[in-house]
Amino acid sequence: RYAVLSALGRRGLGRASGIGARRRLDAAYDFVDAEIGRLIARLAPDDLLLVVSGYRLEPASPLDRLRNRLLDDAGLAAEASRSDGFLLAFGRHVSPGRKSVGAIVDVLPTVLYYLGMPVARDMDGFARTDLFLGSLTAERPVSFIRSYQ
């Protein structure tokens, strides 16, 4: 839905000399920020909002891109797979603060856990219980099933 941020970043806004390109990027970030703010304001007491990106917030520098291409023939796909993404969690049961590094494959097990559903043992990720307050995790241990397949 918000591919505009990725598209603007990949066109090389870092190299753009005009203020117009930077204003467009700022406007796109302002729009997404306002959307997230509206969603947070509408959260019910037990709702959880996750904002997830599998990619970094800023495009790689030209030097990083060159290094990645020299070290690896896969080019941009490999760069994207090594990119640091982010996960922002909002809700009454979310523990404040920065957490340890996770992986994109942790998102589904974490959502299943929060919903009180079992995590499949054949999933690549794991439930990030560290995202939640002890008051929730103490009464909700992680449960498992063999598979959802």
**What is the C-alpha radius of gyration, as a whole number of Å?**
19 Å
Total individual domains: 2
Give the distance, in angstroms, between the N- and C-terminal Cα atoms: 29 Å
Q: Give the SSE string.
A: HHEHHEHEHE
Q: How confident is the prediction overall: mean pLDDT?
A: 81
Unreliable runs: none
Q: What topology, given as strand order, has the largest sheet? A: 1-2
Strand content: 5-15%
**Globular, elongated, flat, extended or rod-shaped: what is the shape?**
flat
Total strand count, please? 4
Share of helical residues: 40-55%
Tell me about the biggest sheet? Answer: 2 strands, antiparallel
Determine the number of helices (DSSP H or I, runs of at least 4 residues). 6
What is the SS-derived class? mainly alpha
